[in-house]
């Protein structure tokens, strides 16, 4: 079996050179590893991706001339262990990275890797004294966007939380138990948790796939910000609800439980494999009021009924969930331009399903006013039968949910 460090190198090679997704690649390549090794690989991969600009700067100070991209990945791995993994001795960080040269077909570069890492270790810099781009490893254009759209103070708070661990929240299946009772069930599995504002915050290591409470359908995992959005929909018993971009289904499950498993909730998605995720989750939770099938949210579907409430959580840049998907920060802002018309079209199409007096929610997991307020304001300007009841932006915090935006609208006329 491959060593954890070799596995981390291969995943990072795919991410940095081929734009692979960190979570997908890590899950795929660590499936057969022990829990300890999986955790180590994940820490290395996410850490190097999170701190990439910082590591590039640190390495550049000690590396003269050009070298192969794969050698740089080795140096980033070594430098990350030296700077950000206190439990790894410096000698191990250097020696194990040098060993990787043989395992990756880069034996010729062992001397270079050894020399550069020793220089990095012996002549450390204070990363806190660097400018924000290098200190927080975040591109200047994204920092500039946050400062422009919000404020310098808010942008700094976002940056401070950028590389922190995102809290894990669970929603108790209210068909069977409440949050306090879920805390008790998790304690039986030696999982520490606390009931906070309608959800349960997981305070210790938790693997849902091996959890009896999870298998029995007593909970689903959902971020606090997403949960708040789902609750803002205000779904009631025996109503008809449509969730147009539902997968993997977290908000739909919360809404279905609010409906007490009555009425009909159409949880739709563009891709069949993602629809299966919704179906599997609904079955595990015992939610029989969820109807799930493939549907293109950009095209009006005449077969869908008029709904009391419609939720459209549209595809977005994801700048609110960088803690979970660190590579998102490196997206070019120019690449986002193709998103804006899609987001507006989904909102416009979704509005056609809402009954008079019904509720429409537009939401994203990003922090970018062009994808958030601008889309909603344009929609309201062009659709006089809808009124904004609430708009909210959530910024990521150490103890709170991910960055998120949602707008609650009411249809006042046909």
What does it look like?
It is a single chain. By secondary structure, the protein is α/β, with parallel strands linked by helices. Helix content is 45%, strand content 16%. The protein is built from 17 helices and 11 strands. The protein has helices at residues 4-18, 22-29, 35-50, 52-62, 69-84, 90-103, 110-122, 132-135, 140-149, 152-161, 179-187, 212-215, 224-232, 250-258, 272-285, 339-351, 373-382; strands spanning 168-172, 193-196, 199-202, 219-221, 240-243, 264-269, 290-294, 307-313, 354-364, 386-394, 404-411. It has a 7-stranded mixed sheet, with helices on both faces. A 4-stranded antiparallel sheet has the order 2-3-1-4, sandwiched between helices. Helix 15 links the parallel strand 6 and strand 7. The longest helix is centred in the first third of the chain and has 16 residues, at 35-50. It is globular. The relative contact order is 0.09. The mean pLDDT is 95.
Summary keywords:
alpha/beta; single chain; 4-stranded antiparallel sheet; 17 helices; 414 residues; 45% helix; 7-stranded mixed sheet
Radius of gyration based on Cα positions: 23 Å
Classification by helices and strands: alpha/beta
Q: Which runs of at least 5 residues are low in confidence (pLDDT < 50)? A: none
The number of E-state strands comes to: 11
Please report the number of helical segments.
17
Q: Could you describe the largest sheet, including whether it forms a barrel? A: 7 strands, mixed
Q: Return the average pLDDT rounded to an integer.
A: 95
Adjacency order of strands in the biggest sheet:
7-6-5-8-9-11-10
Separation of the first and last Cα atoms: 63 Å
* Coarse morphology: globular
Helix amount: 40-55%
Q: What quaternary form is this?
A: single chain
Portion in beta strands: 15-25%
**SSE string:** HHHHHHHHHHEHEEHEHEHEHEEHEHEE
């Amino acid at each position: 079996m491959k060593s954890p460090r070799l596995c981390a190198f291969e995943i990072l090679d795919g991410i940095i050179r081929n734009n692979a997704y960190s979570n997908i690649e890590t899950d795929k390549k660590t499936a057969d590893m022990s829990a300890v090794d999986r955790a180590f690989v994940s820490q290395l991969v996410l850490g190097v991706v999170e701190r990439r600009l910082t590591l590039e700067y640190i390495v550049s100070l000690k590396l003269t001339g050009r070298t192969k991209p794969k050698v740089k990945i080795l140096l980033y791995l070594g430098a990350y262990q030296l700077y950000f993994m206190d439990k790894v001795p410096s000698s191990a960080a250097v020696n194990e990275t040098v060993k990787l040269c043989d395992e990756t077909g880069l034996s010729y570069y062992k001397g270079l890797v050894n020399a550069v890492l020793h220089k990095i270790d012996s002549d450390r810099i204070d990363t806190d004294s660097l400018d924000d781009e290098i200190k927080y490893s975040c591109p200047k254009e994204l920092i500039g966007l946050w400062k422009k759209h919000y404020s310098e103070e808010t942008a700094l708070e976002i940056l401070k939380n950028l590389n922190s661990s995102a809290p894990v929240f669970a929603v108790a299946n209210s068909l069977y138990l409440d949050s306090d009772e879920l805390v008790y069930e998790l304690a039986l599995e030696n999982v520490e948790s606390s009931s906070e504002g309608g959800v349960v915050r997981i305070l210790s290591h938790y693997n849902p796939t091996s959890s009896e409470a999870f298998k029995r359908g007593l909970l689903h995992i959902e971020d606090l910000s997403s949960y708040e959005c789902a609750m803002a929909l205000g779904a009631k018993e025996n109503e008809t609800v449509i969730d147009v971009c539902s997968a993997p289904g977290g908000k739909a499950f919360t809404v279905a439980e609010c409906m007490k498993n009555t009425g009909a909730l159409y949880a739709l998605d563009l891709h069949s494999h993602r629809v299966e995720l919704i179906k599997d989750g609904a079955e595990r939770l015992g939610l029989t009021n969820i109807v799930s099938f493939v549907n293109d949210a950009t095209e009006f579907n005449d077969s869908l009924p008029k709904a009391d409430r419609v939720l459209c959580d549209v595809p977005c840049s994801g700048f609110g969930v960088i803690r979970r998907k660190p590579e998102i920060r490196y997206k070019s802002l120019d690449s986002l331009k193709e998103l804006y018309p899609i987001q507006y079209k989904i909102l416009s199409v979704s509005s056609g399903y809402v009954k008079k007096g019904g509720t429409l929610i537009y939401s994203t997991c990003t922090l970018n006013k062009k994808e958030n307020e601008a889309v909603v304001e344009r929609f309201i300007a062009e659709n006089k039968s809808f009124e904004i009841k609430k708009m909210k932006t959530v910024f990521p915090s150490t103890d709170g949910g991910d960055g998120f935006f949602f707008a609650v609208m009411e249809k006042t006329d046909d």
